[in-house]
Structure prediction request, 570 residues.
Amino acid sequence: MLPFKRSIAHVIACAAASRWPHAGLTDETILEMLEYPPDDGMGDLALPCFKLSRTLRAAPPSIAAALAEALGDLSAADVSAAGGYLNFRMSRAYLTDHVLASIEARDERYGAGESGAGKTVVLDYSSPNVCKPFHIGHLGTTVIGHSLKLIHEFLGYRCVGVNYLGDWGTQFGKQIVAFKRWGDRETVEAGGCDELVRLYVKFHEEAEKDPALEDEARAEFHKLETGDEENYALWKWFVDVSLAEYQKTYRQLDIKFDYYLGESFAVDKVPAQVDRLRDLGLLKIDDGASIVDLTEYNMPPCLILKKDGSTIYHARDIATAVYRKNTYDFDLAIYVTSAQQSLHFAQLFKVLELMGYDWHDKLVHVPYGTVSVDGAKLATRTGNVVLLKDLFRLSIEKVREIMEVKNPNLADKDGVAEAVGVGAIIFYYLYNSRIKDINFTLEQALSFEGSTGPYAQYTYARTCSILEKAGGVPEEGTVQLTAPEESALLVVLSKFPEKVQTAAAQYEPSVITRYIIEVCTAFNRFYQNCPILSAEDAAVRAARVRLTRAAGIVLRNALHLICLKTPEKI
Prediction:
């Protein structure tokens, strides 16, 4: 749709310049004003003329009528004026010669762009806290972050995906105390993160009875920070045990990171940044701790070093940001974390600005809302968690049960069940705006009807089945559209490149997720009302097979951008 919008904006600007030469209306001005009508019956694109009324000193209906008359007949679109709107409907020739031809020619690159060519984006996402298993609360940062990585890569950016593990901090003092008091290596090796979190929960239970344990934990972490060999060996082992478990989840999500560089990686880089803060006069002592006062910017102080000189996450994040800029020379650095960390990132970005780093405005925090299951929020220290591996397992099992009824002879049932079961959870999560809080309901996520992952994947599989039964796609030739559902489908498919750009600009995968449902709805309406393989006319049959392939191309490309696999049979 974007090429169409640009061409329409150009002809409108030219017509306006002829009719109102002193108005100064440019292609870009008109392009920003164009919008999609709420009702398809009004057209595919519209120019509301209300904003032009003051500039052109005329009533909106008369502006629309004058422009419609000036434009006359366009090869790309039918033009009409309705009230204060100038409406455009893509011509069938444009839909076949430009939209369908572009989809077929570009195939897996349809929707892609080159706006990111020569630019680098660093994406910080997933970043689980070591010693704690993946729970459903980790899903947001993981799938939003990876989707944004895929979207930016699709637009030509060089993307660096970093898993910034939460592998440093006082909590590891707690973990070390818990292990030394109540744990053993054999049990941890067998139980993995489940056993580590059991020990962590026990620490908090015991600390409520004996507050001195908190001091003991701080002392153990200080020993870790100052190079104690025993504590370092324990910490390294905790990290290895955790990563082994995380990799299982990443495999199911088909996610690979370029680097695992956690908070511990930045510890030896902190002193240089502390010295810079001190030299700039930004570092102040407050009750023994080192802070940067941000009162002037309506923010609480940013804590850099604790009383005992130990680093805290602000300091490590400052050092990490500087390292990433020096190493990757990014044009953009994206942090995908919970909205609860918005203040932290506002403080981080402001301190980097005060430190004189002129790239501070290239840092973006992408927040997302909380997730609950049946209204219950999650907390590791109380043991109130819904583990992601358990949710995936349950979802996969339920999908396999459905498949036994729907398609008992399907080959590779296990692989397809995993693709659909895991995809259902991802799709459900990414369907709404990322900032909204989500109450997860597995039954809704697994439905094969409505705005769900299984519905989208099943629709894609339907396009594959039709193409298989057709025995291939006819050779390209003149395509005659004979039904309104055919044109409507192509209009929807034409929007994909613009949707990709919008999703990137807004850091919003739900733009793609919701668009996928729009494609599915248009394709299934076409499928229900337009005989494809049974069409009597050979030319009509050939055209509809090609439309089916085009829908499949767009669905495959779009589903990939939101981390969903595309099984060809379900």
In short: Residues 388-561 form a domain with the Isoleucyl-tRNA Synthetase; Domain 1 fold (CATH 1.10.730.10).
